[in-house]
Amino acid sequence: MVAGNWKMNTTVDEGIALAQAVCAAVSGTTGVDVAVLPPFTHLWAIRQVLEGTGVRLGAQDVFYRDSGAFTGEISPAMLAGWCDLTLVGHSERRHLFGERDDEVGKKFVASLAHGLEVIVAVGETSDERDAGSTFDVVERQLDAVFAELETPPSVDDWVIAYEPVWAIGTGRTATPEQAQEVVAHIKQHVRARYLDGAPRVLYGGSVTPANAASLFAEPDIDGALVGGVSLRAEEFSVIVAAAAEAIAGRATA
Ligand code: PGA
Questions:
Q1: Between the CA of residue 130 and those of 38, 95, 127, 134, 137, what are the distances in Å?
Q2: Which homologous superfamily is 9-252 in?
Q3: For residue 74, with 0-12 CB atoms within 10 Å meaning exposed, 13-18 middle and 19 or more buried, which class applies?
Q4: Residue range 11-27: average pLDDT?
Q5: What is the mean pLDDT of the segment spanning 166-177?
């Protein structure tokens, strides 16, 4: 899977043009689950652009209640039936907007309840990595999600994005070995504690056309959550093509 998190970028017109360019650029590539996550204001219009292209639509966040006096929030009920995915727990939500682990868990559960696939993002800060607590942090963030669940989700209904905070938007990508180590640990933790299998785990944090193939060559990395580069359709499509090649390689391995 390669998902483009546009963050707070583009006007509606620019977003429509970007979505069209992404669809055109990835149209020859098969086998990769491609998604774009535009701002909320763009979703309805971009849904029409994506129709019939195979590129899926995601929201960058969602609230956990269906309706009510929650000024400024968007509920999963509003997205259900026409939007494919939500992203919850992005580090910018956690660190800039003070979102707690339990709120991320509630958003996760609410999304699933409305038939939306969910990408849940986890990752440590540089201080946490330096302190040797990377595994503890990602386990805590995942455990908080499972604490909100009454029944375990099917592994097909959700995706984990491992995004070390120190690598997001910094140009300082985790090495493939660093990313693989944590992604493998995440899968092992989910299997040991909660589910028979593990969902797909993406890596995110300064993924570019130059480093995508080496990340995808790692056995447990199942794709990328791409920020900055997702605003440039051609470069984004190179990452999608790298994922397609990695899948082909795994099939013949
Ligand atoms: P970046 O962002 O690719 O710009 O580092 C990744 C993300 O925040 O999902």
A1: 33, 18, 5, 8, 12
A2: Aldolase class I (3.20.20.70)
A3: middle
A4: 98
A5: 91
**C-beta atoms surrounding 185 within 10 Å:** 17
Centre of ligand 1 to C-alpha 219, Å, is: 21
Kindly report, residue by residue over 195-239, the tens digit of the pLDDT: 999 999 999 999 999 999 999 999 999 999 999 999 999 999 999
Mutation to probe ligand 1, out of 94, 206, 211, 230 (largest number of atoms < 8 A from CB): 206
CA 80 to chain centre: 18
Answer whether 62 contacts ligand 1 (Cβ < 6 A).
no
Average pLDDT rounded to a whole number, residues 57-86: 98
Q: Which of 42, 90, 103, 117 is catalytic?
A: 90
Residue 42 annotated in active site: no
**99, 103, 124, 163: which is the annotated catalytic residue?**
163
pLDDT band at 171 (very low <50, low <70, confident <90, very high): confident
One-letter amino acid at 100 equals: R
The H-assigned helical ranges of the chain are 12-26, 43-50, 76-79, 91-96, 101-113, 126-130, 134-147, 176-193, 212-216, 233-252
pTM above 0.90, yes or no: yes
